[in-house]
From TrEMBL, chains A, B:
Alphabetical list of Gene3D superfamilies matching this protein: S-adenosylmethionine decarboxylase
Keyword set, alphabetical order: Autocatalytic cleavage, Decarboxylase, Lyase, Polyamine biosynthesis, Pyruvate, Schiff base, Spermidine biosynthesis, Zymogen
Pfam families named in the record: AdoMet_dc
Gene behind the chain: speD
Name of the protein: Adenosylmethionine decarboxylase
Enzyme class: lyase
The enzyme's E.C. designation: 4.1.1.50
């Protein structure tokens, strides 16, 4: 192994964090829409899906003091990263992650998500992940 | 709908972001270990798995200028949130997300991940997600 401290590094990739409040009930209770968002975001970020998106309905009420509103949870593995969504229709809340090893335009993804989820308010964070990702393989 | 501005809000939950550098090749090239991390972290955070963890091997070399080292990508949906891992054995890099609607001890998760992945260096961020999550349902 090359001594870790002597290797050239780069950034692994961007991670867009998107939380949406006050989305319409009708929008968030649409399972197919969740599937579509996962698929569209992959295309929008120019990433290849390694699998088809996977969406489940979570109806458990065991947590949050029995006040869990339930919702949809979905996920798609794209090349070496992922996109996820969790929706809670009764709370008007959706939370999305778009983590990619390839640069993409966060603005386009945010615009798409706002148009699709129709929130009244959003929180958006863009992180750079893997700040010390090696430019080359460190093992043969 | 209750006017969104008049509703009581809380925080949806913590999101632990963990990037690990200089992990041993043998550790990161162990698919079962990736599966185990997803399972263990759910238990450690006291979260119920909605599905079994799902891990795939990504061998595509189409991106990063054909220098993609490939790796494992895994994911498990826990109650209304998720845990993910992506490993790149040849680069010694692993990137983990633990996003939960339930409070957990990030320190325990970080300690577990350090012990399991044996990195030389890490970046750790803890975010609070869903800062305006409604305390009650806003739709009936």
């Amino acid at each position: 192994m090359t001594a870790y401290k002597n290797i050239e590094t780069t950034t692994f990739g961007p991670h867009l964090i998107f939380d949406a409040y006050g989305c319409p009930y009708k929008t968030l209770s649409n399972m197919e829409l969740c599937f579509g968002i996962l698929s569209d975001l992959a295309d929008l970020a120019g990433m290849k899906k390694m699998t088809e998106p996977y969406v489940i309905k979570a109806t458990s009420n065991e947590f949050m003091g029995g006040k869990d509103p339930g919702g949809f949870s979905g996920f798609v593995i794209i090349q070496e990263s992922h996109i996820s969504i969790h929706t809670f229709a009764k709370r008007g809340f959706a939370t999305v992650d778009l983590y990619s090893c390839k640069n993409f335009e966060p603005e386009s993804a945010v615009e798409y998500l706002k148009k699709t989820l129709q929130p009244r308010d959003v929180d958006v964070i863009k992180l750079d992940r893997g700040l010390k990702y090696p430019k080359q393989n460190i093992y043969k």
